[in-house]
Amino acid sequence: MSGQVGARRCAVLLVFLLSLVSGSATAFAQYQADTSATLPSPWNQASLSPPLPDQAPTVPEPFGLGARPVAEGEILNKWSGVIADIRAESDILTRCREAGAPCPAAAQKFLSVIAEGRAHEGRARIGIINRAINLAIRPTSDLAQWGVVDRWSAPLETLTTGRGDCEDYAIAKYVALTEAGVSADDVKLIIVHDFAVGEDHAVVAARLAGKWIVLDNRRLTLLEDADMPHVMPLFVLGSDGVRQFVSTAVAQSAAKAPVPSAIAF
Predict the structure, then answer these.
(1) Which spans in the chain are helix H?
(2) Bridge partners (DSSP) listed for residue 206
(3) What's the predicted TM-score (pTM) here?
(4) Under CATH, what is the fold of the domain 65-87+104-255?
């Protein structure tokens, strides 16, 4: 009899404990729901979940280096100025696309390059634009063309004269790639120091299948950033502004060098 009473008491106690646990679980679940609803989205439960295994990893910047934003200086001023010129030229390209609208010869040439690039995909698109811009411009220093040490020109201005130095090639390729359908996040203008010739140089890098492909006015062939010989990456320019490479000991030593006042072609 006492055994039956004890068993009955244990059963009652077990039911009581289960009800407490069930109630606590319900309360905790409600607490999670309320908290997720009231906290900002970066802190909710979904945002704290680890990425799914099939999600693609983030591709690093060109040359596998980190970079810090540049808040002032000559490079930022030049890039801001040329971006404003590119926006002004985009209005010309828009009018040229309208049937019957007058269109300058330089704009017609540039739109032809863009259309040829857009008709292809992947590495072919990049190669076509690299080759077309390289063949459309004759290498000329800013001093010879404009009488100043360094001047950055938007694409239509460069194609109007048919002459330019390395950053003019790079700016034209940068715009042509984005106009041809490459995401602005996947196109960067890179300033490097070329130890082989002892001068700074501008190229464009386009991200393709997790790799950065370099477009260079000194060659028609395409190279990956890792295969660029004898260069030190200095600055990366793009839709997110200007940044300076700093993440390695080598890059940090380069960052201590003065901002280039002129870039060779």
Answers:
(1) 2-38, 74-96, 105-118, 122-136, 142-146, 155-161, 166-179, 249-255
(2) 187, 213
(3) 0.73
(4) C8orf32 fold (3.10.620)
